[in-house]
Amino acid sequence: MKLKGLATITATAILLTACGNGSSDSGSKSEGSNKKSDNNQVIALDEIKTSPEDAVKKAQDVYSGQNLKGISYEKSNGEWAYKIEQQKSGEESEVIISDKNKKVLNEETEKEDAINKNDEFKYSDAIDYKKAIKKGQNEFDGDIKEWSLAEDEGKLVYDMDIQKGKTKHEITVDAKNGKVLNNEADN
């Protein structure tokens, strides 16, 4: 599927850009993990302007009648944005929404022969993203680089990349109860 391939390429490009920026970490603790870093590649929770609910609503205004399939919060063309993936019978879409002003930065749709209804969820089914991130940071104290919410093997989960210095962890948190399911060091 073209959309999944594009999403994979985009995610890879973002990760390569983040890993290859040559910046150093200030070595800050939890308090610093909610602040902007000099390279502006760290999510500052207290500076997020658009809620996930508002981003989903905006995406559903663009492609009405579609159901939520995934949310991610990451850098897109130099600015923080939500990527909302949706689907309905015979169609999938991706809408990228700016965090700073809720403007649609990009929208794509494509026809699909088959969709998996088990991939669909409502954001209200998950714990708040800030709570999930705090759970992840309790597991590994570092800066949030990006997060996403999606169904994975029948379970709604938050996946997040947390980095401290040159050490990066990929942490998975159950989006229903906040339990840390996986903490994998990625050096």
From TrEMBL:
A Pfam family of this chain: PepSY
InterPro entries linked to this entry: PepSY
Extent of Low complexity compositional bias: 19-31
Annotated region (Disordered), positions in chain: 19-49
Source organism superkingdom: Bacteria
Domain PepSY: 51-108, 127-182
Name by which UniProt lists this protein: PepSY domain-containing protein
The organism's taxonomic lineage, starting at the top: Bacteria, Bacillati, Bacillota, Bacilli, Bacillales
